[in-house]
Amino acid sequence: MSRVTLPTSCRYLILAARPDGGRTIGLRRARDLRQLNETLRRERLVALRVWALPSWAGGTGSESVSLKDQGELHTQLAQLLTRGVPLVEALEATSKSVAPSTAPRVERMRDMVAAGASFSDAAATVGMFDAVTTAVYRAAERTGDLGGAAKQLAATTRRQLRISGKAGTLMIYPAIVLSISAAVTLAMICFVLPKIGQSIKDLNTPLPAFTQFLMTVGIFIREHALWVLVGVLAFLTLAVFARRAIVEFVGRLARTTPLLKEVVLTQESARFFTVMAAMTKNGVTLADALGVAIGVISHPALRRQLTTLRTKLIEGGVLRSLIDSVEALPLPTRRLLMAAERSGDLESAFETLAGDMTEELERRSERLLAAMEPVLILVMFLMIGSLVVSIMVPLIKATTNAVG
User: Fold this and answer.
1) Which long-range contacts (C-beta less than 8 Å, at least 24 apart) are formed by 181-186?
2) What pTM was estimated for this model as a whole?
């Protein structure tokens, strides 16, 4: 089929009236004002003012679609296509189910498919899916089972959302606890400690060096709050530019920390087997599926060993002996894959391992969170407890001197 190219979408800043008479401000993406008005009409909004954002501010349409929206699209397509609904009509119905920011892309896909483009080419053109998902749909088009591929990808996406949810929980929980501790500590240093310290000084009681140091820091932050804020913003800006190095450092640290390294490896394995299950079930050859699935892995050892396996497999190596060389995978996992290869049922093995790894990730994440709680309590004690001690020690001395 010929590739059809449509104009890229633009982003608009809108001021619109709601049905209840209120006003709302937001961002919408559309090909032109006509499509923007149609989108707002479906949301029961009336545009009062519209500003077209420049390309550097509005983006070029390459922003990734959320995994939740992708899952919704897979689910709707699976339900409609397996019941005989034509693809164009299925895309039309699906555009009403996704988020307003994603609907214009689905509508562009519908227009392109109606004009003669293949579904996978349309998805790649509008940037709807990642390379893995696009490859699965492209393989399904060759076999004529687009609905089956959508059903498989819907299950895969639900599994990925569970994996991402666990990873998010592991990151958010300590971040919230540490942020609250830091905020309480900062408030005590800037406002509570200087007042108490000054009161103790007025009683002619010398302050410990640690208390005096904290008082000096707190007074400096309070009196130069603007400059401190500028410094924090500058630090955050540098962190954004150096985010790649920071992410790599955090990744290396996570892969060497007890308990956490097992969670990281399980998460990478679950992602790998999820992709392999989705691709092999839709007719993608094992070597091609490995080439795509390896791209979603960030664990260096696992990625390196799987790359070596794929290279030797293409060169004519025996799969069952190559699997045993992937020592980053647990021994039971390797034995299961070797048995599945002998029986010719690798597709089911990948699906089973994807589900098992996802469940194992949940168990390991719960254990890790349970282990993190006492560590976080200790950190909170060190942050806040040290301030309490810096206040109580001079208070006790002042009281002793007053009694004496």
Assistant:
1) 181/379, 181/380, 181/383, 181/384, 182/383, 184/383, 184/384, 185/383, 185/384, 185/387, 186/221
2) 0.65
